[in-house]
């Protein structure tokens, strides 16, 4: 641009992606003021007052000219306050109040306070990824861990006054290489706290080993929630691209990512009053829902039948695809949601159906209606279901312990390592074509016949048969069986039919 204009790089969020925006500034005669064009929303238009006050507070001159700020491309809606720093920097460079050297090689992100302080905005990982892809450095008040995780240089600007000496004089922070920091499973609550539920712990091991969905059905006090909240402890640490994706979703949602950086897998437990948009994603602007915040971790639905039918049925497609696509007038938003579903439910509305010590007060129609709230199509997508009873009071008083977190971690790690080694020897292309769902799962002819007979007696559909086969293969991995046995199939079928029919 000419001597009376300048442009810098900015960005806005769209879903979980940062979209590049070129901030152009032009100075002209006329009535002094700031005009912002390029499809800004209310928050962007309010930047005129924030920028003006911030410049005055940091002892910069406000030019007695008409300032036009163009946000290109003009066909993209500009939302949020992340463009404040870019607009202020472009105005200062255009009026020669700061050195222009090096500004074109950085992506400016930050919200301005009236005192000139630069505040962080949500989506720092998305901005870091955009800077990496565009070959730019980051400039703004962003977390050094974010730049380190992505591998970009960060010049942290905490106040607009730091730009007086030029961007090159602002110190770089962060390091491209950050050591892994993992949590010790024994340092938190332990599975041994859950007494007299060894079969349920066995189901948790199988579900964790194969990343399978789990439904626990039992009366109040059976330990369903305690088991679910300990599930992330036996999963392998969050690393690599999976961790980066989880960090991306959390940063866009404005949530702290320090636990994810330590390798802890996310655990999300929304209340049953959550809306469909809150669970799946949506709103205005479109933001990730609970299923995306659980990406790489566990989504726990306590009192599952109490959730809205629409919300529960909206889980079906994300469970199959590992991502959710939200269609709006301005386009399609895609969020990752490769989560492990863990759910808990009572056997009836009062919760005491089948409990020998508490009589059930529900009518048969009430029980049928309560169970029907989950819906057959969703139940068909849950791999394991287990019926739980209240633990023995005698064993609780005596403090009898069973499997603990460390032992369960070892079982899960061994099963996953065994499965990885087994899959290395599966011929390429196995599992496709007419071979059916058992191809590549090491089922012998006799075991296939056993599964066929059980499936026929229970009238299982194609998806249910495939899921039983998958559970049986995971049971075999836990037991380190090179080939699935009939006992593995029987245990898998027991978990398929053991809770809600």
Characteristics of this structure?
501 residues, alpha/beta
Please specify the SSE layout and strand pairing.
Layout: E1 5-14, E2 17-28, E3 33-37, H1 42-45, H2 47-57, E4 66-72, H3 84-94, E5 106-109, E6 111-112, E7 118-119, H4 124-134, E8 137-140, H5 144-150, E9 154-156, E10 172-173, H6 198-210, E11 214-217, H7 224-230, H8 240-252, H9 258-261, E12 267-268, H10 276-280, E13 281-282, E14 287-288, H11 290-293, E15 298-301, H12 309-313, H13 316-321, E16 323-328, E17 331-336, E18 340-345, H14 364-372, H15 376-379, E19 384-387, H16 393-398, H17 405-424, H18 445-458, H19 462-478, H20 486-497
Parallel strand pairs: 3-4, 5-8, 8-9, 11-18, 11-19, 12-15, 15-18
Antiparallel strand pairs: 1-2, 2-4, 6-7, 9-10, 13-14, 16-17
Helix pairs in contact: 2-3, 6-17, 6-19, 17-19, 18-20, 19-20
Biggest sheet details: 5 strands, parallel
Helix content: 25-40%
Q: What is the C-alpha radius of gyration, as a whole number of Å? A: 28 Å
**Rough shape?**
elongated
Judged by helices, strands and strand pairing, the structural class is alpha/beta
Oligomer: single chain
Low-confidence runs of at least 5 consecutive residues: 176-186, 431-435
- Strands of the widest sheet, in order across it, are 12-15-18-11-19
**Helical segment count:** 20
Strand tally is: 19
CA distance, first residue to last residue? 70 Å
Summed over residues and divided by their number, the pLDDT gives a mean of 89
Strand content: 15-25%
């Amino acid at each position: 641009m000419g001597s009376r204009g300048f442009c810098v790089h900015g960005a806005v969020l769209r879903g979980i992606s940062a979209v590049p925006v070129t901030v152009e500034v032009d100075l002209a005669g006329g009535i002094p003021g700031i005009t912002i064009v390029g499809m800004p929303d209310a928050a962007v238009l309010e930047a005129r007052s924030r920028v003006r006050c911030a410049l005055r507070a940091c002892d910069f001159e406000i030019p007695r000219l008409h300032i036009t700020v163009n946000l290109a491309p003009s066909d993209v809606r500009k939302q949020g306050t992340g463009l404040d720093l870019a607009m202020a920097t472009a105005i200062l460079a255009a009026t020669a109040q700061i050195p222009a050297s090096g500004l074109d090689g950085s992506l400016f992100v930050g919200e301005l306070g009236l005192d000139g302080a630069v505040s962080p905005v949500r989506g720092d990982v998305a901005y870091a990824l955009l800077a990496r892809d565009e070959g730019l450095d980051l400039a703004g008040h962003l977390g050094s861990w974010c730049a380190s995780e992505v591998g970009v240089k960060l010049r942290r600007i905490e106040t607009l006054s730091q730009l007086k000496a030029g961007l090159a004089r602002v110190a770089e922070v962060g390091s491209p290489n950050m050591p892994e920091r993992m949590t010790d499973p024994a340092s938190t609550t332990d599975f041994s706290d859950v007494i007299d539920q060894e079969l349920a712990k066995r189901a948790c091991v199988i579900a964790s080993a194969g990343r399978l969905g789990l439904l626990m059905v039992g009366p109040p006090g059976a330990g369903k929630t305690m088991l679910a909240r300990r599930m992330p402890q036996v999963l392998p640490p969050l690393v690599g691209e999976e961790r980066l994706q989880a960090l991306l979703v959390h940063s866009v949602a404005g949530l702290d990512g320090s636990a994810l950086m330590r390798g802890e897998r996310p655990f999300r437990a929304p209340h049953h009053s959550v809306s469909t948009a809150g669970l799946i994603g949506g709103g205005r602007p479109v933001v990730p829902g609970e299923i995306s915040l659980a990406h790489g971790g566990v989504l726990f639905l306590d009192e599952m039948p109490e959730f809205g039918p629409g919300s529960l049925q909206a889980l079906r497609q994300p469970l199959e695809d590992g991502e959710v696509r939200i269609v709006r007038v301005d386009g399609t938003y895609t969020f990752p949601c490769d989560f492990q579903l863990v759910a808990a439910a009572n056997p009836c509305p009062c919760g005491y159906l089948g409990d020998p010590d508490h009589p059930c007060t529900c009518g048969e129609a009430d029980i049928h209606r309560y169970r029907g709230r989950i819906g057959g199509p969703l139940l068909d997508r849950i791999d394991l279901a287990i019926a739980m009873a209240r633990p023995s009071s005698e064993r609780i008083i005596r403090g009898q312990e069973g499997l603990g977190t460390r032992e369960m971690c070892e079982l899960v790690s061994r099963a996953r390592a065994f499965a990885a080694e087994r899959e290395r020897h599966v011929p390429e292309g196995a599992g496709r074509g007419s071979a059916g769902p058992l191809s590549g799962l090491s089922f012998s002819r006799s075991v296939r016949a056993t599964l066929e007979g059980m499936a026929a007696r229970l009238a299982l559909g194609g998806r249910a048969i495939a899921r039983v086969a998958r559970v049986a293969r995971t049971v075999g991995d836990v037991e380190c069986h090179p080939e699935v046995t009939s006992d593995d199939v029987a245990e898998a079928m027991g978990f398929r039919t053991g809770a809600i029919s």
